[in-house]
Amino acid sequence: RMNRLENTKIGFLRNNPVLGLSLGLTTALAVTFSMTSAVGIGVLTFVLILLAALLGGLVKMVAPKEALLPVNIILVAFLAKIGELLVLAYAPGLAASVGIFLPLLAVNSIILFATGAFSPEASMGESFTDALKAGGAYLVALVVVSFVRELLGTGGISLQNPLSGNEIFSFSLIPSEFTLSLFTQPAGALIVLALVAAIFAALGKQDAELGGK
Q1: Distances (CA, A) of 148 to 113, 156, 158, 184, 192
Q2: Cα 134 to Cα 127: distance, rounded to the nearest angstrom
Q3: DSSP bridge pairs for 169
Q4: CA distance 173 to 101
Q5: Judging by beta carbons within 10 Å of its beta carbon (0-12, 13-18, 19+), is residue 178 exposed, middle or buried?
Q6: Which among 50, 56, 80 is positioned nearest to 68, based on CA atoms?
């Protein structure tokens, strides 16, 4: 049974939406080939999650429980389409880099989860708090995975402004002869995601033993 995000204690280390619960996993695997795409899509998803929580709370006030899931599926598709159109208009470079995975935000499970369709008893405030926590943890996971993939695959990190395309910063740490292009490919995404998830799980377990949240 799906419970509220708060009940699963979503966090940056323990029960991270991507690394612990596999929510929004397809997007995470697809867009983390570069820091720029991961930050851009991560911020967009974060905003969509918050909007889904707010609008989902309003939907719960007027829709019967039996209709919450289909109505919220339509709501998520609507929000994702608005997000897609805004990215196409103001960040075409980002849209071109992620391709089909931009409209696929419409079926991103973490956005649907944030609407509260599976927790009809939760108040709007509780849903929004849960969404804020989940969206932040999702963004962190994308940034960490993309950092590792880009560093190992290209030898450095380059972050560009998704809106203007101007470079914000870049640096190189690993000589090109020691890099592996595998990490910029889908197979590399799975490997890095698994390794990062294992590290987060270990850190989360240690944090739990120390009494952290």
Answers
A1: 27, 10, 12, 10, 7
A2: 10
A3: 159
A4: 29
A5: exposed
A6: 56
pTM, rounded to two decimals: 0.86
Tens of pLDDT, residues 113-136 = 888 766 767 777 888 888 898 899
C-alpha span between 174 and 92 (Å, rounded): 30
**Max Cα-Cα span within the chain:** 60
Measured CA to CA, the distance from residue 104 to residue 68 in angstroms comes to 21
In total, the chain counts a number of residues equal to: 213
The residue ranges of every structural domain in the chain are 25-201
Backbone angles phi, psi at 16, to 5 degrees: -60, 135
Instruction: Give dist(CA 16, CA 81) in Å, integer.
Output: 26
Which residue reads 């395309």 in tokens?
A: 165
Burial class for 107, CB neighbours closer than 10 Å (0-12, 13-18, 19+):
middle
Average pLDDT over every residue of 62-69: 84
